[in-house]
C-alpha cells in the first residue's frame, strides 16, 4: 500500500518526469513485488 500511495503522488505531481518511474513500479509489481519493496517504490 506504501508504493501505491507514492505512485499516485508522483503521477499527480509530475506525470511527465515521474511517469517513467511510475511505470517501473507498476511493471515490477506484477513481476516481482519484492524488488519494489527492496528500495524502488520508496524512491
From TrEMBL:
It holds the Pfam family RAG2. One of its GO terms (cellular component) is nucleus. InterPro entries: RAG2 (IPR004321). One of its GO terms (molecular function) is sequence-specific DNA binding. One of its GO terms (biological process) is V(D)J recombination. This is Recombination activating 2. It comes from Mylodon darwinii. The lineage of its organism: Eukaryota, Metazoa, Chordata, Craniata, Vertebrata. The gene is RAG2.
